[in-house]
Amino acid sequence: MAEVVTFYALSVIILAFGLLVVTARNTIYSILFLIVDFLAVALLYAAMNSLLLAMIQVLVYVGGIVVLYLFVVILVNLKRPSEQHVDPGRKSVIGGVMAAAVLAELTVIGVYNAIRPSVVPGAATDVGSVEKVGMALFTNYLIPFEVASMLLLVAMVGAIILAKREL
Amino acid sequence: MGAITPTHYVLLSAALFMIGVFGVLTRRNIIVIFMSIELILNAVNINLMAFSNQWGNSNGQVFAIFVIAVAAAEAAVGLGIILAFYRNKETVNIDEMNVMRW
Amino acid sequence: MIDTVVVPLLKIFVVLNAVLVAVTFMVLLERKVIAWVQVRLGPMRVGPYGVLQPVADVVKLMTKEDITPVKADRWVFTAAPMIALIPALMVFAVIPFGPEVSIFGRRVTLYITDINVGLLYIISVASIGVYGIILAGWSSNSKYPLLASLRASAQLISYEVAVTMTLVSMIVTAGTMSMVGIVNAQLNHGVWYLFAQPLAFFIYFVGGLAETNRAPFDLPEAEQELTGGFHTEYSGMRFALFFLAEYANMIVVSSVATTLFLGGWLRPFPNVAFLGFLDFIPGWIWFLLKTFVWLYIFLWVRATLPRYRYDQLMRLGWKVLIPLAILNVVITATMKVLL
């Protein structure tokens, strides 16, 4: 019962703030709504009994990536809404048809699930625990782990070179 | 309402994905486009976590960690590019980022 | 019902009240200690020897006029102090003040909760506190606070890397991320990790000074620089919240340092039976004593050392502390495998 309430409350927050992110006129407000969105997703992971991923989500996304976005927006100083262009090449009819198709598909999935629900996960497994994720990460996926660390190093060097002023 | 099946998570992930795609296609401000891409990546992560929970396998969580790492790298480089572009052209509206067009 | 809802709520109530009262008295303690170091007396007028000074401070701040700059962003200007304060208080949910005790016949653990990623939770929540500073500077819509807030947040995120590396080496030493687990690991090893990891202790202390914007790293908020830093435009209760956030952060850093390096609630030499007569002192008193020692060292350092310039500060963080912290992680991991 608590699980159901948590899931619905968090999903309402996630979707509502997601919509606010893409429709807010002030970019700083978009970033603030994005922070709330990421925190809600982290709470969703915690409700799924995966505390490690929840903490990593907060630490990397909220504590790192969005700070970077905020810095860039402040440096670029986007307080004024600067987008009044309407692209004449935009095809609204096709967009509307595709949106309706996706909506129909999602409704079908929802109805099908209500009739024949899929497998409910077992009682609180510890698959999200630090030990299990750590073992999987450092034994089965060791090579992708090292490659990801090199990717981050390359990205760091690249970002510094791109954003640096010539002195 | 019963229990929360993975299908609930899939529907949530699909909705968040659609919101992200809507943001990428509609907004003209490139930073908001980048933020919508982060929303899309989060939707993918929710999906991965839900299935990892269902099958009791840690692979989904490891994949989600890599998605987060790649999102961090992409955000850093993308914002570096935006800053470099802004220094030259004083704009972040992608309709005006047409320097290479004829 | 009682155990899952009422007891944690009571614990939260007690901890929050204790922290907020401690913060107000920290303000007085700082002024007194710095005064005594400088051979003067400090606040002496309000109450006997000035001990009621915090009451006067609180009354002053609450009755001051609340000025909002005309072109400031209303919502963000109001929210920034809260965003600075809330993560500092949230950390207290996982700090272990003492072992399990019996209160009124009920077994009660002297910590609000113990999640098994406690240390990672502390790092994550502390990194949210940066937003309060950035948003305060930006929403004031004035150039000095903006520059000061960018400097302060750059300093914070730089030292966060070194502090996180240090905490990683502590996690490797203790073998667990839960705070209670780390204290128990110190009990099992029989030695405070201060002696097992002196380099980590030093880096954590210096990083903690920089993280909380305390001297000698307080360039972003010193009055002689940039007219007061990122909280220039704040007055009254909002300014009080920033002050509360800074002192609460100090208490957080001290509590985490106590748990990680000084053995939490353990008495000195916990495994030496000869000193068993010290056991009548309850665990939380040891915790408070050790935290107080750290806080005193914070104040002592402020009274003694001159301020770092900003480029010296960044050089220290990036070129000295981060390589040392990485070296510490490598050495710790090697010794953990070999021993």
Structural commentary:
The complex is a heterotrimer of chains A (167), B (102) and C (339). Chain A has helices at 2-23, 27-47, 51-76, 92-115, 130-140, 142-163. With 167 residues, chain A is mainly alpha-helical. The model of chain A has no long low-confidence stretch (mean pLDDT 85). Chain B has 102 residues and is mostly helical. Chain B has helices spanning 6-26, 30-55, 59-89. Chain C has helices at 2-37, 53-63, 74-90, 118-128, 130-139, 143-174, 179-189, 193-196, 198-211, 237-261, 283-304, 310-338; strands spanning 100-103, 106-109. The termini of chain C are far apart. Chains A and B meet through helix 1, helix 2, helix 3, helix 4 and helix 5 of A and helix 1, helix 2 and helix 3 of B.
Concise synopsis of the structure shown:
The complex is a heterotrimer of chains A (167), B (102) and C (339). Chain A has 167 residues and is mainly α.
Number of strands of chain B: 0
Please tell me how large the radius of gyration of chain C is: 21 Å
Q: Helix fraction of chain C?
A: 55-70%
| Shape, per Cα inertia axes of chain B | elongated
List the secondary-structure elements of chain C in sequence, H or E.
HHHEEHHHHHHHHH
Decide which structural class fits the backbone of chain B: mainly alpha
For the largest sheet of chain C, list the strands in their spatial order.
Answer: 1-2
Mean pLDDT of chain B: 88
The major β-sheet of chain B equals: none
Helix content of chain B: over 70%
Oligomer: heterotrimer
Biggest chain-to-chain interface with counts: A-B, 77 and 70 residues
Computed Rg of chain B: 17 Å
Structural class by helix and strand composition of chain C: mainly alpha
Question: How many DSSP-defined strands of chain C?
Answer: 2
Number of helices of chain B: 3
Distance between the termini of chain C: 46 Å
Compressed to H and E, one letter per element, the order of chain B equals: HHH
Mean pLDDT reading of chain C? 87
Q: How much beta of chain C, percentage-wise?
A: under 5%
Query: How many helices of chain C in DSSP terms?
Result: 12
Key structural traits:
heterotrimer; A: 167 residues; Four Helix Bundle (Hemerythrin (Met), subunit A); 6 helices; C: 339 residues; mainly alpha
